[in-house]
Amino acid sequence: MSTTTQTPPPPPPPAGGEIRDTPLADALGERYLAYALSTIVARSLPDVRDGLKPVHRRLLYAMRQLKLDPEGGFKKCARVVGDVIGKYHPHGDSAVYEAMVRLAQDFAVRWPLVEGQGNFGNIDGDNAAAMRYTEARLTAVAQALMEGLDENAVDFGPTYDGEEDEPRVMPAAFPNLLANGAQGIAVGMATSIPPHNVGEICDALTLLIDDRETPIATLVERLPGPDFPTGGVLVESPDAIREAYATGRGAFRLRARWAVEKLGHGLFQIVVTEIPYQVQKAKLIERIADLLTNRKLPLLGDVRDESAEDVRIVLEPRARSVDPATLMEQLFRQTELEVRVGLNMNVLDADGVPRVMDVREVLLAFLDHRHDVLVRRTRHRLDKIAHRLEVLGGYLIAYLNLDEVIRIIREEDHPKPVLIDTFDLTDVQAEAILNMRLRSLRKLEEMEIRKEHEALSAEQADLRDLLADPARRWARIGEQVAKIQEDFGGHTELGRRRTELGPAPGVVEVPIEAMVEREPITVILSRMGWIRALKGHPEDIGDPRFKDGDSLHTVIRAQTTDKLLLFASNGRYYTIAGDRIPRGRGFGDPVRLIVDVPNDAALVGLHVHRPGAKRLLAASDGRGFVVEEGECVGQTKAGKQVLTPGQGAVAVTSRPLDPGGTAGDHVACVGTNRKLLIFPLDQVATMVKGRGVTLMRLKDAALSDVVVIRLADGLSWPSGERTRTETDLSPWLGNRAGAGKLPPRGFPKDNRFGGG
Q1: What does the DSSP assignment read for 212-231?
Q2: What phi and psi values does residue 619 have, to the nearest 5 degrees?
Q3: How many CB atoms lie within 10 A of CB 616?
Q4: Which residues belong to any copy of the Topo IIA-type catalytic domain (predicted)?
Q5: What is the pLDDT of residue 112?
Q6: Is there a single domain that holds both residue 139 and residue 77?
Q7: pLDDT exceeds 60 at position 163
């Protein structure tokens, strides 16, 4: 008995199919490369020949299939979007609809390819209505882009599901890439092409038809710069424009168009009638209003939007003395009334390879494409003519032998092969004869066929000559360019240049006071350290209110743009910005909320910082020095240590070297021992920081006050409501570090000179 061994069946394949070990880096790189190529070629970059991205091309083709011609009716956008995503472009409906909406917005594209009916958004940035509410059809420009699709002008390829065919590129009887521009961001590359004027593009194309090596500088004379649908003023220099077109990369400065409207009585307002390309008007006005609220536009009083169908933004200056050019320069710097529009002519060439082209290469690529379309359409027409001539030849044979043809058709069971054998016909001719109607047998029809045959034969000869003669072909392309110029050029309302070519702006010096709001204020500081500001510089501040037990310390006049220097008894200077001081007629705020003055430090003095000025600092131990005010400005709330008082001493004063606007030449010191000493100012050292030198020798006393005086003017001090002046100061003159003598009769009992 023999036994057979059965081979066990192979293990079932793992769930999900074949599993291969692949390094993660290789797998990620391969998939990311595929994604990048798909994004570049099939989504983000336009084709140099028709200037369209795949989604735009599919939108136009789907609308053509729906017969949405310019002379026809409108259809719901939802119907178009449904056909596009169902047949050609398997992406989200919102993305496709947004692309369609942009093609219909006359402020977004220079030459709309879609004519919309309904709410398609506006220049304020409002979105279009839902696609179930809006309708659309093609424009004449879109129709020109697709002219020749039925004549084998371009290649077709299968759609994503293989059920239908779609054009790989449009015949493009319109220079759409430069006319409408393009924007796109792919993986590792991007494109940015501004729109241009069609008439100027045609002028440049004409030059290249005559001479393909025309210098770019000559082309730029015919194509001087972009032409934006929203107008504006192009203020880039001609050299920069020429360089951008020569390299395919660059940027253009675009400004809003504005004018001054006189209102009478010396008043005026500025009206902006055109804003830069792709700037949303509502956001622009909101930005200006925010700057106005934050006091960043001191020359501007108000902004309002008076736009209807046109743009009208009204800017009211703060005063009639404001220079309009300075105000607009300030707005250009801080808002989108001036933008930079990039140029990056990164496109897919005829082989589908992305690369950056200069303007001549872009124009030549369009002309070469039109040449290919002309050749293909001519050959297609020749094929049609050849087929028709073949049929007409059969008809003529039938008319010459009409009786025999009728006999064969009536008597033969299979007349077609008999006709072919009898009259030496082709299969096409025999089939055409058999499909003839009886009414076509009249004599008049025979004459018409002979005329048609002669006309087609002449056309056939002409087309064959066209294919054989390159000069004739380029002349024909020149005629097509002239037809574009006639239909869409500058002599038409739609084709006129909208963007003004202005000179590059010179350097406009905007004064610092124009950049920051400057407002006069009166600062009131109390002895307990409460600070507030009153608007303006009133002659009399009245009787300011203080908290119980508090009183006035200092009143100074300043501007909101000033820096105030607060000197404390710890010898530190604290910097306070004028616009940070609280306003109003209440008690104000504690100064210690603004700067970090210690609670145990008394407030000595407050004054407006004057760059370049000098001050004399002194401490109660009789020491001091001269310091430049620039060395006293601190960058933090903690202030800056300048005077370093000795043990037990405190800072007692800070005095300017030019009291009353005169150059002081002597220093007067007075102590708590009621001794007065006057000595030359040049005996005091100038330092950055420290304790300084001895100003007055004191024994069992402290320094009360110092002041810088002009010896010829004498020494003055307040006495009630009057001011007393002692002109003969010889009894108190001495050198620095002297002990001094008793002051003149009537000197203040608090041993202070008064003032600040």
Answers
A1: TT--HHHHHHHS-S---TT-
A2: -115, 165
A3: 23
A4: 45-510
A5: 95
A6: yes
A7: yes
